[in-house]
# Entry
Amino acid sequence: MPSISDPGNPSRREFIKDAATLTVAAVAAPALAAQPAGARQPSLLQDENARAGSRDWQLTRVKLDKQRGFRSPAIEGYCSHQSIKTGETIEIMVSTKPASKFMLEVYRMGYYGGRGARLMTTLGPLPGVVQPDPSVGDGRLRECRWSPGAALKIPGDWVSGVYLGRLTTVPDQPSEPYWQSYVVFVVRDGRRADLLFQCSDNTWAAYNRWPDDYSLYTDPRGSHARNVKVSFDRPYNKYAQIFEHPLSVGSGEFLLWEFPLLYWLEQHGYDVTYCSNSDCLDVSQITRCKTFLSVGHDEYWDTRQYDAVKAAIDSGTHVLWLCGNSVFGVTPFSPSSSGRPNRIITRTAIYAGLSDAEVHEKYKDRPPLLADWKRDHRDESLIIGARNIMPINGGGDWVCTKPEHWIFEGTGMKKGDFIPGLVGWEHHGAPANIPGLEVVAEGTSWRSGVTPGHWTATVYPGPKQNIVFNAATIFWSQGLSSPPGHILPWSHWSRPHGPDERVQRIMRNVLRRTLA
# Structure
């Protein structure tokens, strides 16, 4: 393990030596003042990010099962919950092959002076065991039933956020190599805040191919077969969609899609609280905040979440769709085999935005799938402002079409000016028929560089002077920041170019309007 100079972070040799007497070592942090449930704490994130960040939180040594493989059998794990509150206990299921001791360092992700994370606690050394690969169940479900390798009661002073746990094997001899991977979870709270940042972890699970190419997309019937299931009770594989990213093992899609926005919001001191997809089935969890943020690759939704977000818009909540291909697949939650709620998602249908002709065009080469599709009556465009259209994927430039609109104030953009590569790899298309809706940016995306598609960024008014903004691209957060541990994506011969002051200004304009 590389030598690190954070308080409480020793060199590798000292780390192994000192760990022999260490069970739980929390980084010193003043306890937060007691607050009544639901109270606003507008400076909470500013105070949190004033604390010292960690120089060493990324994965340094990753050992995949094979070249371009999906998993890291030397050490891998998963969490018992997608999100958890302070005072509750989260279990970390860990497998090490061969069996070996391991350490668990838990980091909160944020800005922290540009370092991106803060070490919260260290557990270990703990005994590791080889845990079994699960059998294949109904719907090609791979559901682990591993015994816990560690348990952690979330301290009362831990601020809501996204937390990465770094698992590291502890070799018997200091000269032997160590191996690492992540686990990821959200700490949520019940307080009122300006912004509710929803992680798109349903989609992380949908694309997770652990252990050997089992995801919603790898059914032998085809990539969009119905009634395929995936479980949160398994490790996240290495990110394996648009590029090879071995240092993502275990972190879902967080480091690619959500992290740049999280980093930027916390850098600028916004009042934000965090949740998972599964936390948004109840409208009251959304309406406690002024503005709801859907981030990155937010493709898979339980219909209860659709209904909750629609009800939130109707009640006056602002919604910012900083994402693409969102609210596409209908994936109801079901409990795990042990009865824990919301641990399995099953793709049963698509939302109703796509026309029959578009569905036929996309799936014309796979008639069994076309016959198998079911469509829910809920139209995603009525909450987003634009539909998913074919082709959903591609790449292109984000082109200003209404420079007089307030979102462009201070950007200097004129009609036809564009932000290169910001559209991709999936997007939103045809605008909805909603009174007052405005198309503020639109243009052409190119799938594989040859098939054109049309994307549209929109703004429409809600019924109580709230607004709904649709950025229309998964790549939106790439224009805000590029924090440590983040790699710019590349797909369809197109890529975003990294932080852009125009994207940052548009984001400030939108947030200022929603937080007024």
Observations:
- Residues 58 and 485 are 6 Å apart (CA to CA).
